[in-house]
Amino acid sequence: MDSHGVVARRRRPGLTVLRILLVLLLCLAVVAGTVGVLWQQGMLSVAGRCMSSSTVTVVASPAVEPALNQAVAKWNATRPTVDGACLTARTVVQESGQAAAAVGPGWDPARDGDKPDVWVPDASVWLSVAGSRPEAAALLSSEGTSIATSPAVLALRKPMAGALGWPQKQLGRQDVIGALSQPDVWAKAGHPEYANARVGLTDPATSTAGLASVLSILDPTGTGELGEQQLIAGLQVSRVVGGFAPDASVFFAAQTTAAAVDPNSVVAAFPALEKEVAEFNAANPGGEMAPVYDPQQTFVADFPFVPITADWVSERDRAAIAEIREYLTGAEARAILARHYLRAPDGSVADTAVLPSDGGYPAAPPPARAAITPERLSQVMAAWADLQRKVNLLVVLDTSGSMTEPVPGTQLNRLALLQQTAGTGFNLLPHTMSIGLWEFSGRGTEPHRELVPFGPYPAMAGAVPRAQALTESVAKLRAEGDTPLYDTVYDAFKTMQKQWEAGSTNSVVIITDGANEVANGLTLAQLTEKLGKEQIKEKPVQVVTIAVGPDADAESLEKVAAAAGGRNLVLREPGSAIETLVLAFTGRLQ
């Protein structure tokens, strides 16, 4: 009992200890929960070691991946962190064209490889390719930061470049194409052994150098103008093509084979990136290639560093991406990239030991061409695909008396104009083409006459090569008689139905300056009905009609062409339509 008379209760030691243990357990639970949260958020480290990490995947093109991989390894070695989490990066190699086709919310790792957090294609043009798809454009909100550059060039065997005056003379792509299309150029230069050399093309859908080559041919000034002159330039290139490959590595490898020792072996020039030429030359002393630049505007691979804004990229990944980008634009990373034959983002040569000026690498390349919009790029690529398609063509020329009428603004009559443009066009025909030549007028018992039988362009036409037969036949044409137009159109249509070939455009081109003048032959109504009914849906033959001069019956020709699924062109002033007529003789009218 205490002093107040109250009986004191004895405290039980066990209960006090129990309370203490409960408090300790509660505290441990709180601490454990906090540790778990910090662990999950990557904010806890022990003795400087991170308890979590974040790895960023960089999908890069083969041209830059080796250099980028080395630079990323250097960055990883600095043990970067963000909010206590360890950061690392790794590179995955993938062709730019393949990545451009795959990028989007539907990226399938099983089909497309690891999902990218960052994409480094060869050039920003691949952003336009991918951006033509809205679902991909949504993931490419950034234009990217260039980490290096490499101009697109035409790789040409050094002895051939020397025969054309290089390196004292600056060569352009057209200089090389022109020389390859004219064997006598090599004879005049004292090297007739190069007469059979050809150019190789790489796939513009997957190869950056191939895409650059197409843009250089069809849009050389970067203005977006795609006219008949550009199409003719494309035909000039197609005529000297000696092979196709997915990328330049195939052609580079061919230069080291025994066949390459023979100067007449087929592919002696092909599109590539400057850094690929420099790499090849370093590995093959004595068998080097000369880099040929476009003298006015050069396509430049700018290797943009493009963060992907997809739902699989976390906030921590984005922080890591910002750190990596900062490192790659710094001095240490640029020195690594330079040692891999790459220029600085501004186009300057950062390492003259690997890109020496006396090796043909200018200190500053020609001005880079402007960026191209997705819409414009689609137009150029569609035109290129059209130029590459195989064509089976029957050319039918009006040689009636009206073809002796003069062409205003020239010293030629209509027939002479056709002879001139036909000769130019026939000299642009690719070796994959098949062609035949007719004339029509009412001076004989038949409405038309076969001048050159239909067949492959490289093959013989009787006793002479078909190219020679075409040129000589056109030169011998004379104009007289009336115009049996409708009967000739029908016979030509039926002939080409027999020559129809899958995978080709099968066409008849009728060039005339008048109207049908045969009273006892087919009428317009009969012809259009026959063309419509006898067209085979699975094997279509187009009839393209060209109305030349003010006297041509353009209205009737329009109906004839429409009945056979073709088109009609009206050249009221043929003297100003030389290029159109040249394209007509190649079957490449747009």
Automatic annotation (TrEMBL):
<keyword id="KW-0472">Membrane</keyword>
<protein>
    <submittedName>
        <fullName>Ca-activated chloride channel family protein</fullName>
    </submittedName>
</protein>
<dbReference type="Pfam" id="PF13519">
    <property type="entry name" value="VWA_2"/>
</dbReference>
<keyword id="KW-0812">Transmembrane</keyword>
<keyword id="KW-1133">Transmembrane helix</keyword>
<feature type="transmembrane region" description="Helical">
    <location>
        <begin position="20"/>
        <end position="39"/>
    </location>
</feature>
<feature type="domain" description="VWFA">
    <location>
        <begin position="392"/>
        <end position="589"/>
    </location>
</feature>
<dbReference type="InterPro" id="IPR002035">
    <property type="entry name" value="VWF_A"/>
</dbReference>
<dbReference type="InterPro" id="IPR036465">
    <property type="entry name" value="vWFA_dom_sf"/>
</dbReference>
